[in-house]
Every structure is written in C-alpha cells, then in structure tokens.
Amino acid sequence: MLYQLRQREYLLEISRAMTSRLELGSVLRLILTYAAEMVGAEVGLIALSEPDGSLVVKASYGIPAHLLPSFAPLLTDIPRLVNLQQRTGWQIPDLHLRLQAVAAAIGMSLDQVISLPLAVDDELLGVIYLFRSGSVAFSHDDRRLLSAFAAQAAIAVRNARLYSELVAEKQRLDAVIENSADGIMILGPDLRIEMINRALLRMTGWSREKALGRPYHEVLALQDTSGKDLHEIEDLERELPRQGTVYVEGELSRKAGSRLVVGVRYTPLWDEAGRLRNIIVNVVDITRYREAEEMKTTFISIISHELKTPVALIKGYATTLAREDAHWDEETLREGLRVIEEESDRLNSLIDNLLDASRIQAGVLKLDLGDVNIPQLVHQVVERFSTQTDRHQFEVDFPDDYPIVLADEERLRQVLNNLISNAIKYSPDGGVIRVGGWADDEWVTVYVADQGIGIPVEEQSRLFQRFYRVDSSLRRKTQGAGLGLYLCKSLIEAHGGRIWFRSEPGKGSTFFFSLPRN
Ligand code: ADP
C-alpha cells in the first residue's frame, strides 16, 4: 500500500515536473531518475530515435560515460511499430542475450532488465532501459507502472522536441528578420514595439534599448511629403483589414534630422477570437525610387520646354519667311535665317548632350585621347563666345610653361563651352570672365571665374546632379536642361580628373577642374 502510494506520488510529481520543463536534456534526466527510483533499478538509460531511425543514448543513470558505447547491442533492431493499446506486449527480441553481451563487455552485473517504448500515436520516439542486479526479476506490476509512466514521459519528450524545433525555427526567423535589408518591426496589440531589426534602427536612428516598448509612431515618425503627420496610421487598429495589409508611403523624420522616403506595409495578425495579436511592420527605403521618379518628371518637363522653344522659333520664322504674299528685305531675311540657324544649333547641342548623358549612364562613353594644348583651346572657345556678348569681358591667364596634356580635345572643348556659357548665362549684368590655370607636378588645373549671381549655399551640393537647376527667377528666364554640369563632371572624371567650384552668392562663382599630368 505504502509502495503504491509512493508510486502515485512519483507519477504526480513527475508529470508536474515534466510539464514545467521543456528543455529535452533535463526532461530525460528527470524521467530516468524517477523511473529508476520507482522500481529500484541501479542502472538505466534512455535512447531516442534520430531522424535516420537509429537510436542514440540521450540520458543515462548509474553508467560511467566511457561505458555507454558498450550498450550498443541494446539499441539495434528495435521494433518500431508500437501499438499503444498493447504497449505491454512490446518486446525487444533476444533481450536477455543482448543483456549478457553488454554485461560481459562492461563488467557490471546487470541481471535483470526491463525495456519500455516511449511512443506517441504509435510512433516510437525512443526506449527506456532499466537494469538491476540480483535474482529478483522485474514484476508485472513494475512493468504496468512504468508503462503508464512511459506514456506520460513520451508526451513530455515530444513536447520538448517540438519546443526545441520551435526554438530552432524562431532562431532562424530571428536571423532572417535581424539581417533583412528592409526595416522590420513587430508590434504588440497595444501598438508598442516588441521587436525591431537592425535595418530599421539604422533607418530611424534609434537605439534598440530606447525603441523597444515605445509606441511605434514615435520611432516610425511618418509625414506626408508636405510635412504633415500621417495621422491615419494612429488609428491603425481600426483601419487594419481582417485580411491583407495596409500600405502607406511617407517621409520618415530621423533622429539625425535628415529625411528618408519610405514605403510601410502593416500586416496584422489576429487570434482565433478576432483580437489583434501582433502587427508586422515592413519598411522599405524608396528614396532612390522617388528621386528617380522625380527626375523623370523633371526630365520630361525640362526637355519638352527646352525642345519646344527652339522648335517654335524655327517654325515661326520659317513660316513667316515663306509667306507668299510678303516680300522681305534682305536684312529681315538674314536675321530670320540667323535665328533659324542658331536655334537649330541649340537643338542639336541639346540632343548631343542628352545622348552623352545617356552614354554616361550606360557607361559606354569613350575618350579619343591625344595631346591637348589647353591654353590654345581656351583661346578658341573664348573667341567664339566673345562674339556673342558685349556685356562681358574675357581674360585668359595661363603661365607660359603650361603643360600639354593627354586628353580628348573635343570633350574638353565641351567642358569649357559649358562652363563659359554658364558664366555668361549666370552673370546677367555682365562683368569679367577670367579663364586661366596652373600646373603642379601631378595635376593641371583650369578655372573659369565669373562675377555673376553666384550659387546659394543650400544648392551647392546638388549642382552636379543630372537635370538639376537652381530655382531662381533667372533660371526661369535662362535656357538650360540642367545637364551641363553633370556632363562636365562625368567627362572630367572619365579623364581621371575632378571638378569643383567656389561661389559667393551675389559676387560670383569660380569653377575648377584638374586633370592628371601624364
Ligand atoms: P543649366 O545651365 O542647363 O541649367 P547646368 O548643369 O549647366 O545646367 O547648371 C546647373 C545649375 O547650376 C544652373 O541651373 C545654375 O543655377 C547653376 N549654375 C551653373 N553655373 C553657374 C554659375 N557660373 N553661376 C551661377 N550659377 C550657376
């Protein structure tokens, strides 16, 4: 009676302990210890099935570690099919022969053995072996008791296995989330941040410690492009669909102050009762995409404007001059034809610039290198421009020993044309335009200085971008596609050189470029 009482206590204790522990190793040790104590066994082991079907010892009791391999005969050819109803009928063939082999190998007296399957739903998860010395065999009661116990142990083993699979799965998922290039965070039902990955921390400028537990909209502070807060997402819970996602685009105000354009996708997860459990928030940086879009729009509006103006002039003059009912005097005729020629040239150079820009973009711009006498080239370019303006004076200033460089003369002419025509365009009140240069051991440098309107400080960093034009009333009056400086920079860099400028708004600008001496 007392024995049975103790057994019941054991069973209770073990089922409690087993359900509160999920780590497989400790569950197995616990099972084995209780089982051995329960039936007074001195030695025991638990072997579990591996994915390939073999049995491997996972816990032992009363066996020195170095003797464990000797138990191998007990772990092969184990019947895999377990009929739960008839668990007691489960037998390992030749058990006693196997036992003798093991006992002889390890030199321990293992006289009595009992083996029980750990099985759930007829699936063999493993085997428990218990051994005892002496002549008293394990009784039918022992077996019955252990059986009930093994059934419970099997469930604990399976739970522990599932748990460790879950842990592995979670680790995998965590690694995917943490290392994703997109920003990801997981919100709790209270819309506070439960998890946030590295990419999103980088985007927002928050530290993990500060971000965790915070209301999500403090960290992901989204505004629409006009700077208005995107309040719609504060009502996230109400707005979230039962199925699918919500997508919002906006600007992210970052801790550092700079802005990022992002696309944010909110995916709600609901529990069975329809309550919000989590929201997965996926944040993609679309700044470049937006910029490309804007550039495309700017491109189309600038190009259409720039192409339409000369075409309209050409068409207007041509139509007027061709009128049959009018007789034009020589001077009018000449003036009209001059405008047509000039505007055709402008069209031509715009088209050339566009082609060059697309070649540069495609990386197929080729240089035709030869000896170039830069001062001589500058004189030619300046001479051509000086016939076009009487408000500007040109000064050319190069030292006599200015070196010859290996470069593409036509491309350098293009650069000088652009810089000098900008100097003219952007000094509407005239002034002196100085072009000169110097050389040191490594570089030859050229500058073009004007006394024009200069460049506002806040615009200076974007000047060399494609289609970029400083917004001013003068810009609206002057023609240009914002391609000139982009081309200059690309052409100079293709030569291995660099281009930069200094400018004081209202006083003038000086553009410099350097080419390597060969
Ligand atoms: P575009 O002249 O066709 O507009 P560029 O790429 O040559 O294009 O120049 C880009 C912008 O840089 C111009 O719109 C102008 O605002 C500014 N810029 C270029 N050169 C000068 C200069 N010498 N002085 C003042 N602003 C300049």
Mean pLDDT: 85
Task: Tell me the overall shape.
Answer: elongated
> Proportion of β residues?
15-25%
Strand count: 17
Bound molecules: adenosine-5'-diphosphate
> How big is the Rg?
42 Å
Please give the order of strands in the largest beta sheet. Answer: 6-5-10-9-8-7
**Class from helix and strand fractions:** alpha+beta
Q: Poorly predicted ranges (pLDDT <50, ≥5 residues)?
A: none
Number of helical regions: 14
Helix percentage range: 40-55%
Distance between the termini: 105 Å
Largest pleated sheet: 6 strands, antiparallel
Short précis:
With 518 residues, the protein is of the alpha+beta class. The chain contains 14 helices and 17 strands. The protein has helices at residues 2-20, 24-39, 95-106, 140-179, 198-204, 208-211, 216-219, 236-239, 287-322, 330-362, 374-386, 409-425, 473-477, 484-494, and strands at residues 43-49, 55-61, 112-120, 123-132, 183-187, 193-196, 222-223, 246-253, 259-270, 276-285, 370-372, 392-397, 405-407, 431-439, 443-449, 498-504, 508-516.
